[in-house]
Amino acid sequence: MTTLVFGHKSPDTDSTGSPLIWAWYLTEVQGQKAEAVLLGEPNTEAAFVLNRWDCPKPRIVTEIADGTPAVIVDTNNPAELPANVNALDVTAIIDHHKLVGGLETKGPIDITIRPLACTATIMHDLMGDTALPDQIKGLMLSCILSDTLEFRSPTTTEHDRAVAEKLAADLGIDIAAYASELFEAKSDISAFADAELLRMDSKEYEVAGTKFRVSVLETTAPKLVLDRKDSLMASMVDVAAQDGVDQVLLFVVDILNEEATLLVPNDLVKTLAEKSFAATVTGDTVVLPGVMSRKKQIIPVLTM
Amino acid sequence: MTTLVFGHKSPDTDSTGSPLIWAWYLTEVQGQKAEAVLLGEPNTEAAFVLNRWDCPKPRIVTEIADGTPAVIVDTNNPAELPANVNALDVTAIIDHHKLVGGLETKGPIDITIRPLACTATIMHDLMGDTALPDQIKGLMLSCILSDTLEFRSPTTTEHDRAVAEKLAADLGIDIAAYASELFEAKSDISAFADAELLRMDSKEYEVAGTKFRVSVLETTAPKLVLDRKDSLMASMVDVAAQDGVDQVLLFVVDILNEEATLLVPNDLVKTLAEKSFAATVTGDTVVLPGVMSRKKQIIPVLTM
Fold it and tell me: Distance (Å, rounded) from C-alpha A41 to C-alpha B104?
């Protein structure tokens, strides 16, 4: 049977590129039958990356049959995976997120989780001195530049940076110029409805009994998002109700200026912002200097 | 702060040796402060190994303060770890068991789980070409021979075997002779009460709503155990009641003859044995040819 390789349900560049990278490795190097698939539509940056490196868009699957051999990458969170994930035949997990619990396997399998910025960096290490075609190098480089926001995110490690610089040198690619292309693609939000923007890159998180959907939009053009702030704040009420959370938080991360703007639709978010970030909130937005990473700078400080 | 490195609550050779191996690596190679500790008294084989390789017995700890830096080895099962394990600062997990779920970490950490027979084999790989002192090689070899029952267990992989043979060659040790010493040490059960034997190497497992404590005693002298079968079966009732399970199962694994004898104290176990192993039970024991591994040959087939 063919092993399906997939990341989480909101495929960004790492969750689109890493399945392709690992499916290539399983097929071409390990001699297994493997196929990269997506659990949702790739975001605009991921779509740009597929096009740039001549990769056909992987098949989008919404249901996977029990017992299907599977490799999970870029997440270990059952909430971000098919509902029947524990009934699949998961043979490996490669990830760089905290262990959230909930995944169970029938027997011992290969699990590699590392505190690095990007799944593709871990895959690079696992492949050792395997000779990589340019397409795979290009995907790896794209994943690392995307997840590290061109090394600006505090999740970046020296190792992620070194691997990216080596790949870029091999490919003859100028990192700054290529990263600009990536971020420009990610910043094109014109095709998305408000509710889509609120769900595009978001994780549920509970603080003192209150459930939040913590959404992040990384962009080089924050104005494009903030121009839509009134309708985004109106949409938050519907999205929260539909998704069974109490409040949506939207952090608009300005990649180039290295700051985030949090939308403040009500007193609940105002109080949260003031307590969590020692910020003074006067209007319906608040700028949080230096905040770029949900994992490192938002989730750990959220308090009510 | 010093990182505590520990395995599960019933320290066998792998759960005693692997913490020592990894604490050595963290201290001597990584330049960190680390200490191997045990969550219980080592079994007789592990005690023999400590003595053979001139290792002082690690400190036995029963409580670990919240926030203590910790590396967990040879398990990922919260039931086999301190009750406050998710409140510790776990920085790494190295294991070769199935993922059971339940462990959670505050941030991304190093997790390496491999479908190999022994934690020490994984550590050997993670250390790469680090020069190892004889003491560490001796501990690694002991762990692998113990967990693979000298390569007899079906959990054994070619890689475990190759690593053990390399270590034995480096040390000038005859594997067969040394394994005999290990198993002889493990087979000396004279100091243990019946209840201790029933709990020494056991895992809880539920079949169709019935809770079992599945105990295994690996020995080269099954007669020493079976001579005590009447009092062991009497003790099962008390142990089950105290531990909140419905039934204790005791499999006496004859390492040299590669078979297990299951004690059959009542009709419940008789039915279970007949359904699970296609065995015909006539008395109060049943021999199961070829059965050596709880993980591979007992847990997966248990049916009611």
Answer: 29
Which of B93, B99, B105 is opposite residue A103, by nearest beta carbon? B99
CA A82 to chain centroid, in Å, comes to: 17
- End-to-end Cα spacing for chain B: 49
Can you give the CATH number for the domain in which B88 is found? 3.90.1640.10
DSSP state of A11: -
Domain hosting A74: range is 3-185
- Residues of chain A with C-beta less than 8 angstroms from the C-beta of B108: 95-98, 113-116, 295
- C-alpha to C-alpha distances, A139 to A13, A266, A278, A303, B249, nearest whole angstrom: 9, 41, 39, 37, 52
Q: Is the pLDDT of residue A106 over 90?
A: no
Whether residues B207 and B176 share a domain: the answer is no
Give chain A's mean pLDDT.
96
Q: What is the CATH number of the domain that holds A277?
A: 3.10.310.20
Residues B24 and B77 reside in one and the same domain: yes
Do A172 and A200 sit in the same domain of this protein?
no
Last residue of a domain, one of A158, A185, A212: A185
Could you give the 3-state DSSP secondary structure of residue A156? coil
B174 with B39, same domain: the answer is yes
B-chain residue closest to A155, CA distance = B108
Q: Are residues B162 and B250 in the same domain?
A: no
Q: Please write the tens of the pLDDT for every residue from B192-247.
A: 999 999 998 998 899 989 999 999 999 999 999 999 999 999 999 999 999 999 99
Chain B environment of A98 (Cβ under 8 Å): 104-109
**Cα B198 to Cα B202: distance, rounded to the nearest angstrom:** 7
ipTM: 0.86
Dump pLDDT digits (tens) for B125-134.
999 999 999 9
Residue in B96, B101, B114 closest to A103 by CB: B101
Terminal C-alpha separation, chain A: 49
Alpha-carbon distance of B298 to B304, in angstroms, equals 13
- For residue A304, pLDDT beyond 90: no
